Amino acid sequence: MSVAFGAKCSNVATMRRFGLPEGSIPNGFGIPFYFYDEFMKYNEFYDDVQTMINNPDFISDLETRIDTVSYTHLTLPTN
Q1: Rounded to an integer, what distance in angstroms lies between the CA atom of residue 50 and that of residue 36?
Q2: What distances in angstroms separate CA 52 from CA 7, 15, 79, one per listed residue?
Q3: Closest Cα partner for 16 from 28, 5, 25?
Q4: What phi, psi does 39 have (nearest 5°)?
Q5: Residues 61 and 52: beta-carbon distance below 8 Å
Q6: Cα–Cα distance between 64 and 33 in angstroms, integer?
Q7: pLDDT at 38
Q8: pLDDT digit string (tens) for 31-49?
Q9: Can you give the three-state secondary structure of the chain, one letter per residue?
Q10: Would you state the pLDDT for residue 1?
Q11: Suppose 57 and one of 5, 29, 35, 64 were both cysteines; which one would form an S-S bond, judging by CB atoms 3.0 to 4.6 Å apart?
């Protein structure tokens, strides 16, 4: 397993070599954890995630989760 990409990405990449029928393993790409982590820190999204995890409504109500993580709530810096 690659530490840079994590277990899921590494497992999917390995499974693509098994010779399974076309379409069995989805096409895709991986983002190294370092860049994900830098993005999350730069945009202060870890605080947002922690707030969601601590919100009982977010945990128990699907509509709250959908509303909270919708793209309309994401504000990225313009600089």
Answers
A1: 16
A2: 24, 33, 26
A3: 25
A4: -60, -45
A5: no
A6: 28
A7: 94
A8: 888 999 999 999 888 998 8
A9: CCCCCCHHHHHHHHHHHHCCCCCCCCCCCCCCHHHHHHHHHHCCHHHHHHHHHHCHHHHHCHHHHHHHHCHHHCCCCCC
A10: 47
A11: 64
Amino acid at 43: N
Tokens of 6: 């994590």
Which two structure tokens, joined as six digits, stand for 47? 């605080």
Place of tokens 């990449």: 13
How far apart, in whole angstroms, are the C-alpha atoms of residue 6 and residue 24?
21
Residue corresponding to tokens 């600089």:
79
